[in-house]
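User: Predict structure, ligand heme C.
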Amino acid sequence: MRTVVATVCLLLLVVCVSRAWTEEPSRSVVVQQARRQAEILHDTLHSTLQVVHHRYYREDEGLLLPAAALREIFADVEKRQKIELHWLAVEGEVMNTDHRARDEFEQAAVTALKADRPFHEEVTEKAYRRAGPITLKNECLKCHVPDRKSTEDRTAGLVITIPLQ
Ligand code: HEC
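Assistant: Predicted complex:
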């Protein structure tokens, strides 16, 4: 009898352990992972844009604007990783009509980022979407806010959409 009980317990243990190994991560874990990926991606692209502007871009040399060059990187990332990225106009002039808010989520994101919220996010069945701020410093305002009355920082945005498998 004891051997039978021990064998059953062992079998149950094996079943539990193998299930734990093969089980898909829970939805909240998947969302958390997507949020973290979006945060890292945002910070990396934010710093890249600022450094490239500051160190490489010279207005009088007819160069492609860094924000436009980064769109080529967005296209690469989308092709390889299925992560969609695009700019969002928040404050100042709309520099490119493609950057206007595209839907209700993005309109709400513009309001949130204007109010200095650190980010705006949503989770749908299919994707995690996050809009975060891009700082427009004094050196950026000449073009972005031509009628400025002050040199305080302004805000643009970046929207990142990560599919939830
Ligand atoms: C010489 C003018 C000029 C300067 C200076 C400039 N930008 Fe821009 N920026 C533009 C134009 C034009 C676009 C639209 C480019 C496009 O989509 O082809 C743009 C687009 C952007 C966008 C996309 C969102 C939007 O509002 O359209 C971001 C983000 C951005 N710039 C950040 C910056 C930052 C950060 C700086 C300063 C470090 C800066 N820019 C300085 C002209 C400028």
